[in-house]
Amino acid sequence: MLGFGVDWRAEGTHPAPSRRHVLRSCRKRLRFPLATTLAIWPQVSGRHTDCDRAHFRIAVDVGHTVATPGATSARGVPEYRFNATLARDIVRALTAAGYRRTILVNDNGRIGSLAERAGVANRFHAAIYLAIHHDAVQPRYLETWTFEGRPLPFSDRFHGFSLFVSRRNRRAGASERFGRLLARELLRRGNSPSLHHAEPIPGEGRPLLDRALGLYQFDDLVVLHEASMPALLLEAGVIVNRDEEAALFDPSYRGRVVGAVVAAIGEFCSEADSRRSR
Ligand SMILES: [Zn+2]
């Protein structure tokens, strides 16, 4: 579905008119010279103003697996469950927004191979790849509290999102562009970036591409450099932080993240279509 103009490919019952035919009829009816006709073509086709959502392929990856679920939250919930919940929310929202070619990678939580996750997206010919994760902190920051009778590690020191791109990805520039769009949409909704991955301590020290946007460079992330399309990894929040974990249980808070992803993908898709139409 296109927001504006006409999507000829969406016409199921009539053959699509050729571009030459459309241009000729435009010139005849509107009496525009050819140069003007070519200039208005993107607007006529709708590509300049909105993207072709029905054909834009998106791969959303649930980070980690049931067997190796990643970090553990302050209340003892495995990261995989947060990833699966948010990724499913995102796919549902994207599909409802008209992105009908959206797939959930690792939906069953059994794809252990990082290269295989990227392989699924590559074979699907996705135009964008987004890996969903939730964050932890280095052991030095952990304290212990008791939740439901169990002593559990937590740290309230850091909160917020982080975004990672790999310069080894074949579309590194576009990956970074998508990261900037998503960060801005998250900021617009009141979310803030966490800069703890840039701390000069063992296990961190990641270079920041943009401090204000929480955008990091992490070249060796396999899912990102094996993906043949623009790829981004989102750490949606710090689940060892007790308040942020509680917020992430709330569907309306997750809805802010979901809304940011849908908006950023819309902008990225529009820009991609705009570039193609030039
Ligand atoms: Zn993770």
Q: Care to describe what's here?
A:
This protein is α/β, with parallel strands linked by helices and 278 residues long. The chain has 2 domains: 8-45, no CATH class; 53-277, Aminopeptidase (3-Layer(aba) Sandwich). It has 8 helices and 9 strands. It has helices at residues 19-30, 34-45, 79-96, 114-123, 172-188, 222-226, 242-249, 251-277; strands spanning 58-62, 102-105, 128-135, 143-147, 150-154, 162-165, 208-210, 215-217, 231-238. A 7-stranded mixed β-sheet has the order 2-1-3-9-6-8-7, sandwiched between helices. A two-stranded antiparallel ribbon has the order 4-5. Strand 7 (208-210) and strand 8 form a beta hairpin. Helix 3 (79-96) packs across helix 8 (251-277) and helix 5 (172-188) packs across helix 8. The radius of gyration is 21 Å and the shape is globular. The protein starts with 18 loop residues before the first helix and ends with a helix. The relative contact order is 0.17. Residues 1-49 have low confidence and may be disordered. Bound molecules: zinc ion (ZN).
